[in-house]
Amino acid sequence: MTVTTLPTELTAGTWVADPSHSDAGFTVRHAGISKVRGTVALTEATVTIGADLTTSAVTATLDPATIDTRDAGRDGHLKGADFFDVESFPAWTFTSTSVEGSGAEAVVTGDLTIHGVTRSVELATEFNGTAVDPYGNLRAGFSATTEISRKDFGLTWNATLEAGGLLVGDKVKIAIEISAIKQA
């Protein structure tokens, strides 16, 4: 039997992400010897907390046109047809299909769509607590991580290195931070 209890301070209802205090980051191997890190804006996310975790749900939308790796040339290449083709695929989405766990830790399974391809992923998720902000809003914090194969999403562009190997690794680590405000 799966334990599905909610943390005591996380109340049922709808929680909407504050985009200015939420983000998504990614890490991928470059030339097999280093890692490139970047961010992409989380434009909207809703966490619906049910009576327990099994009746809870998460939806999110990210904007690939906001990719930032601190290198304008690389960012332009990532936004272009070789990679994310943001003109044809202007949004990435996530819709949960199940939530299981206990207390502050959960696994949120759902459908992630990137570049027009949808795959099931599992997000190892941690509830970071609640706080009332200076404006009287009740906020909840969540952290989530997963690892995907970029090839699974049709992202196959690469370049062979002179010494062998490939320029861009296949495995991409994703880390998400959400600050969500409880809705009335």
UniProtKB/TrEMBL annotation:
Residues 14-181 form the Lipid/polyisoprenoid-binding YceI-like domain. It holds the Pfam family YceI. It comes from the Bacteria. InterPro entries: Lipid/polyisoprenoid-bd_YceI, TTHA0802/YceI-like_sf. SUPFAM superfamilies: YceI-like. Belongs to the UPF0312 family. This is YceI family protein.
